[in-house]
Amino acid sequence: MASALRLSSTTLRASSLYSSAPVRSAAFNGFRAYSTGKTQSLKETFAAKIPGEIEKIKKLKKEYGSKVVGEVTLDQVYGGARGIKSLVWEGSVLDSEEGIRFRGKTIPECQQVLPKAPGGSEPLPEGLFWLLLTGEVPSEQQVRDLSAEWAARSDVPKYVEELIDRCPNDLHPMAQLSIAVSALERESAFAKAYERGIPKSQYWEHTFEDSMDLIAKLPSIAARIYRNVYKDGKVAPVQKDKDYGFNLANQLGFADNKDFVELMRLYLTIHSDHEGGNVSAHTTHLVGSALSSAYLSLAAGLNGLAGPLHGLANQEVLRWLQKMKATIGNDLSDEAIKDYLWSTLKAGQVVPGYGHAVLRKTDPRYVSQREFAQKHLPDDPMFKLVSQVYKIAPGVLTEHGKTKNPYPNVDAHSGVLLQYYGLTEQNYYTVLFGVSRALGVLPQLIIDRAVGAPIERPKSFSTEAYAKLVGAKF
Q1: Which residues act catalytically here (predicted)?
Q2: CB of 304 within 8 A of CB of 310?
């Protein structure tokens, strides 16, 4: 890996985030690499860690490879592999009681230690991406350099813009996002290098380049879809001296409201990663294990995210809340909320936004959004409704007895925040989730290529074979 650290002195003309100092580019085994020359770049930081990580995995497998780490029950097999310990995911671990930790850090800890924009209070998603990939908290300068690098890579090919423009407006925004990301396969450094023939030790470098380019282009792609479907089709250019969250807010058309910009920074950070077993993360990993490019792997993950049992749930929550508001009006009494909750349950429906496959407490991502609302929109009627549901729903769901976790998840709050600032188009919400999720799943794809993770191929049985395995007779 030492050869991966050799740099040349090629110079790129670009503006450093929040600074007039130039950002210098270096040739990194034939790739672009952006650096101030004073701080270690993301690619350098990650490259330096690879040998140690490979040795750690080799030692773990050699000394403990035969150790049993769990058992599988037939209920788990027929229950969607729920809880089966079978995936490696470095970026985050989800604990049923305390919630998500990003590289060992809770959401409040990330909010405290990750760099922020000048005058801002929420962490920049660039910092979380760095943390997920390397396990290290980046310096403020490193995050500024990464913001500048993404801005420099952000130009979307003309054919992709035209492809988005030709999509019918009634095609779901998530389908348009998946189409656009898939079309970027034409740009894949990894696919081209693999076709030429490269050693496995270089897989991660090409995957890194694809991932950086893809992440950089996502705000412009997402904004183009939004502006085409809901507005005038005009998309503001990326401001090369601004951060990722600002540019997404600006291209959507909401940057005039500094609180919305802060919301985007928070939203992109907390929606990025939720360990590896959820549909979008697992799908990206699974497709990537076949050595598909970052573009095709993420497109597959986005298609999973678009399902109503996954990312699409956030728009379903808002619709349910709006229907409740239309029914009970301004009566936010405990009794009115309780009656509506029971009417939902007795109709055979679930309370959207409540319950989680793993969590058994209130989702910390919900809490972070609630704290944002308490700070910025405490008197909003919809936030007051959400707060009342939060107060009453756990008791009702516990009494109902069919929900293992009666507490809210992240989807229970995000839609209310977005609609408050004027982004009311619910069908679009999952696109924002998709942009954020790329920040969480692509670091693991890079790591997989760096450590030589194999293709994923679990064993399956028929129902008859399982019956024989457990000694059942019909």
Answers
A1: 310, 356, 411
A2: yes
